[in-house]
Write a structure and sequence with these properties.
By secondary structure, this protein is mainly alpha-helical. It has one domain. The protein has 4 helices and no strands. The longest helix is centred in the middle third of the chain and has 44 residues. The radius of gyration is 27 Å and the shape is rod-shaped.
Length: 94
């Protein structure tokens, strides 16, 4: 992200006021700050997306293993309406 931000800042700094006007940039400082904010938020979204994918893969693996154990006779962790049992209820069922 810093490389992209640095490149945009260098680009804006290399332009004179007439060129910036042609680009629609009224206030260079505000524009640079806005670019930094947008790129920071984009980086955060990318990181969160990657983390969600990692967690989804782990959860799917867990449920695959639980399903295999249920098929071998392990009592299900769920009761009515996909609600988890309490620890005590589950131990009674075992």
């Amino acid at each position: 992200m810093l490389t992209t931000t640095d490149n945009i800042i260098k680009f804006l700094n290399s332009k004179n006021s007439y060129e910036l006007d042609d680009l629609g940039v009224d206030y260079m400082t505000e524009t640079i700050l806005e670019v930094k904010k947008v790129l920071t938020k984009n980086n955060l979204v990318v990181q969160l997306t990657e983390k969600c994918h990692t967690l989804e893969v782990a959860a799917n693996g867990f449920f695959t293993r639980i399903d295999a154990l249920n098929k071998k006779g392990l009592p299900s962790l769920f009761v009515i309406n996909d609600k988890l049992m309490t620890k005590e209820e589950y131990f009674k069922k075992l």
